[in-house]
Amino acid sequence: MNKVSDVLIIGGGIIGLSLAIELKLRQVKVTVLSKDFQSAATHAAAGMLAPQAEKIPPSPMLDLCLQSRAIYADWIRKLEEITGLETGYWSCGILAPVYEVEEEFLNSPFWVNQAEIRQLQPDLSSEVVGGWWYPDDGQVDNRALAHVLWMAAQQLGIEVLEGVAVTEFVRENERIKYVKTSQGEWQAERYVLATGAWAQELLPISADALASAIAVYPKKGQMLSVRSLSSSQPLNQVLFGDETYIVPRKDGRIVIGATSENVGFTPDNTAAGIQQLLSGATRLYPPLKNLPILELWWGFRPATPDELPILGTSAYENLILATGHYRNGILLAPITALLIADLLEKQNADSLLSHFHYTRFGEK
Ligand code: FAD
Ligand code: GLY
Which residue ranges does UniProt annotate as crossing the membrane (predicted)? Predict the structure, then answer.
C-alpha cells in the first residue's frame, strides 16, 4: 500500500492539475494520479473563454463562468510567474457573426451591424449581416496552458504520477478506504474525482447508487488547424459562428472547431466531421480556403444531462467531485480550483457550489 497525501486527485487534466496547484500553494500535501495526460480533453479544446459567445443564459452557471473569466488574467499571471513560460492567454474578444437578422437582436447592447462587424474583422463572408461582439470573452492556448500547469506542478514539488490509472474505489462504510490502480494501491485522507469524460468508469451505474448521479458521458469534438500564410495573424479575434468557431493563435495557427457527437469513446477524425468544419469555417471566413492544413484531432468533452458541471461533496464523506465541465472546462478551471480547494480546506462550501451538487439528478 502506498500511503500518500492528504488529498489524492484522480485525473490530471486541467481540472485536476489546477486544483493540485491551488492546494499545494495552501500547503496541502497533494498527489495526482493521471492515466493518460495526452488523451485529456484539455489538449483537444479550442481554449475559448466564452461565457457570452456560448450563450449561457442568466443562471448560477453564468455566474460561475463570469467569475472564472474575471480571475483568469491573475491566475495566468501566477502560473506564468511560477514557470517562466507563456500560455498564449489573449483577451482578444469574440465576434459572433450571423447570416440572418431578427428584430430582437437589434436591442442587444452587444449587437454590431454589417458595417461595424466588417470594421472589426475584414474579409468576412458577404452573407454576414451583423453579429454580436463580446469584448470581454477571450482565449488561452490550452495546449500551452496544459504544459504550463504540468511544469508548475513539477516546480512546486507536487507528486504527479503519469500512466497510473485508478481502477477501483475500495470502500468502508461511507468512506473511500483506498484506491486500486494499475500500479498498486494508494491511500489518502481525502480523494477528488477529476477524471473528465471517464468519470463513470470508476463508478459504473449498476454497481453503485452514487454512480447514477455521476451522469457524465463523452461528447466527442473533432477539430483541425490551418496556418496563416502571412507573418501577421489575419484574424483580430475569435469568430464564433453557428456550429463553427475559428480561433486565431498568436503564433499564426488558426484552430477550427468543433463537432459535437454522441458516439461514446469512438476515436478518430471522420470525413464527415472534417467536411462539416471546413464548410462552416470557409463560409464564415472565405480566406481560410487557401491556407495549408496543419493538423486534425479530436477529444471527449465531459458532458452531463443538464450541461452543468458536478462539483462538491459526494455520497462518500471523503470523496469530492469535480467533473462534467462539458464545453467550458478551460474557462472554469480557476474558479473550480478555488471553490474546491476552499471546500477541502475549510469544509465550508461557497453557496454557488450548491447549484452543481450531484444530488440534483436525484436518487435512482
Ligand atoms: P480532461 O481534460 O479530459 O482530463 C481528465 C484526465 O483524467 C485525463 O487525462 C484522463 O486520462 C484522466 N483519467 C481518466 N480516468 C482516470 C483514471 N481512472 N485514473 C487516473 N486518471 C484518469 N472548454 C472551454 O472552456 N473552452 C473551449 O473552447 C473548449 N473547447 C473544447 C473543444 C473540444 C473539441 C473539446 C473536446 C472540449 C472543449 N472544451 C472547451 C471543454 C474542455 O476541454 C473540458 O471541459 C475540460 O478539458 C475538462 O477538463 P478535465 O480535467 O475535467 O478533463
Ligand atoms: N467550447 C467549445 C467546444 O466545446 O467545442
Answer: none
